[in-house]
Amino acid sequence: MHETRVRTTAPERAVTAPRTRPAGPLPWLTAVGLAFLVLQLVVVVPGSGLGWDETVYVSQAGGNAPPAFFSAPRARGISYLVSPVAALTASTAVLRIYLALLSAGALVGALYVWRKVLPTPVLVCAGAFFAGLWPTLFYGSAAMPNPWCALGALAATGWVARPRADGTGRREAVGAGAAVALVALMRPADGFWLALPLVLAVTVVPGRRRPGVCAALVAGLIAGCAPWTAEAYTRFGGVGARLHRAGEIQGGLGWNIAVDDHLRALAGRTLCRPCDIGWESPGTALWLVLLPLLVVGGVVVARRPGRGTAALLAAGTGLSMALPYLFLVGYAAPRFLLPAYALLSVPLAECLIHLFARASNARRPGGVALLTLVLAAHLTAQLLVVTHVVRVSHATTARFTAIAGALNRSGVRPPCVISGADAVPIAYYAGCASRQTAGHDASTTPAALRKAALRVPTAVLVAPGAAPPPWAGGRRAVLLPPGNSNSAYRGYVVLPAVAMDRTDQARRPR
Fold first, then answer.
1. What is the pTM of this model?
2. CA dist., res. 17 & res. 243, Å (int)
3. Sorting pLDDT into bands at 50, 70 and 90, what band is 7?
4. 15 CB burial (10 A radius; 0-12, 13-18, 19+)
5. 3-state secondary structure at position 419
6. Phi-psi region of 324 (alpha: psi -120 to 50; beta: other; left: phi over 0)
7. Residue 383: which of 40, 30, 51, 71 has the closest Cα?
8. Residue 464 pLDDT class (50, 70, 90 cuts)
9. CA gap 350, 360 in Å, rounded
10. Are 108 and 32 in contact (CB under 8 A)?
């Protein structure tokens, strides 16, 4: 019998599926950014015009009119941001879409900085809360500095909050310094109130001392303030003189409790100055009343998973950026608190995610449903308010456009000069230069205006019920479209300009 040998082969290697790395927070954050973009494009952008402040910023870079007077409190950061579009086209729609795309992308980027500090659910919740606020939605596509201060502050704090284990920390230093520079370029005061707690955090707090990050924060603040500082010496006689003039324009900086003003303004007032209105819709401010409690709760619950320091840093920095507007400025505008809202969204999200997880782990579907309904009601209220704000904004810009059109049809066409009531935005829509002889935007004298009237059509807008200034020497008045709900018409006085004389001669019968 022959022995049969069975040849065995080497054992085959086990076929294992390749390991896949978790997708991370980027897809979820991208979804938040896309939702933010879509809401802006659907609710805010269609039919919108430029507001008063926007016409000042955009006119510095191009747009529809010569540069408007740039007053002491303003900084040129937003003008730099819109210049690529404003220099090419005067289309407000194109500018709005450009800014909406930028703000949505910047929101994703600012939240992504926190990816090594916060879990994905907290990041998504923080982004959704901030993006869902009506001031964020309304100003996301606006040529205004406040949303960029908010996103820059969120990014800067995220860079500082990142753990020290990431190499030498050079990336964190560069990122934090660049973000602070962006905020300071937009609003130097906001840059200071942002850098202050962050510098303290990396110099005083034990275990988080990082000289490189501290140096980067200070350098970023100085670099961001450099254009404003240089302009202070070239136009205002120095930093002290510019700060003094800025304080005068803002009604004097000092101890002013404006907390109640901000609560009332959340009903849909873009500017509450003076804020002597009643409580139109108290429910719209309920979330702001609850915000401090939720933030404190978020800081407390974040300690267990080891994120308490990051939550406390975000809360402290947000409080720092809110303090001047709550206690030093005597009026309110919801956009002022956007940086604080962006930072406080981090501990707020910690608290909300904890509440949802606790209700879910305890198998209490009623609790989860209640939390969901509360958040849905909050978002619905924000959408209702932003719809109201958009409607009011459209009516205001439509009025400015109608008055500008009436001026153009009356012979006040570029090149031209407009002064008087609401001259800044109306001049922008008319394609004229705006020049004021008094007030915050005072940039000329009555004699200079009369001299300009000898060369180009010059108009003085007269508020309803007011008389033209005695120095105008107007030769004719023209009725303009309705001014506001309290008056039927505005009047304007045309100063004796050579161009107007020629127009009148051409109309005379021969």
1. 0.90
2. 65
3. very low
4. exposed
5. strand
6. alpha
7. 40
8. confident
9. 15
10. yes
